[in-house]
Design goal:
Layout lengths: L6 H23 L7 H14 L3 E2 L16 E5 L2 E3 L14 E10 L2 E10 L5 H19 L8 H11 L4 E2 L5 E3 L6 E5 L17 E4 L2 E3 L5 E3 L6 E3 L5 E3 L2 E6 L2 E4 L9
Antiparallel strand pairs: 1-4, 2-4, 3-12, 4-5, 6-10, 7-8, 7-9, 9-14, 10-13, 11-12, 14-15
Bound molecules: magnesium ion.
The site of magnesium ion has 5 residues, from loops.
Length: 259
Amino acid sequence: MSLTKTSTEIDSLRRGGLLLSKALQAAVDAVKPGVTLRSLDAIATEVIEKGGGKPSFKGYKSGNEVPFPSTVCMSVNDEVVHGLGNRDLALKEGDIVGLDIGLWLEDLCTDMAVTVPVGNVSRERLALLRLTRDSMYAGLDAIKLGGTIADIGAAIEDAVDGKYGIVTALVGHGVGHKVHEPPHIPNYRAKGFPTVKIVSGMVLAIEPMLTSGDSDIITAKDGWTIKTKDGSDSAHFEVTVAITDAGLEILTPQPKVRI
Ligand code: MG
């Protein structure tokens, strides 16, 4: 499997990314106190299916886990990522919820996430959301032809500047032919990863996960939900980008959300 995509494939990914972004925007627009995770999942699923796409996380298996049950991973407060979107759990004023979504369109997949406030949230939580978002964009700014994948993690670490925990056990990744592809993209100055040059045709998912406490994580009994070990809050933002001879292109525009 090639680490790069052709321009025809990137055209497909661009269409998929726009549909994915539309689905996520629809779910984000419905976030408010009292809404259930299950109803948000239904909204996103409908947009994807009407657009001719197929949710890529639903039914996804990794290792010996049970298949993932929903279109959107929804992770509330101390949940970092991979929270189940088929829960009847109602969001409460002051919560923060991460919505992570992927789809297949034209046999190629894209991946994106945002963490949003539910109603009025504390200043501390807003600050966590903002810096997680900003660190993602700092990572994107570090993507240069001829540079390396390690430049991305270094830029994210510098943007976080020790203010928050960086989850190190989970990483960004290549994406497109599969939901997760090489290379691994750590969100910090990691040791022990091979040096990978950034070349034209790469399609990458950049996804910092920060916590307001320690960076240690645990997996919940459902086999999927990743939570902070110390119960601190967590936020996650993600974007799929293509690197072409023309430079960096965001394939999954972030939803409009006021944070
Ligand atoms: Mg991802």
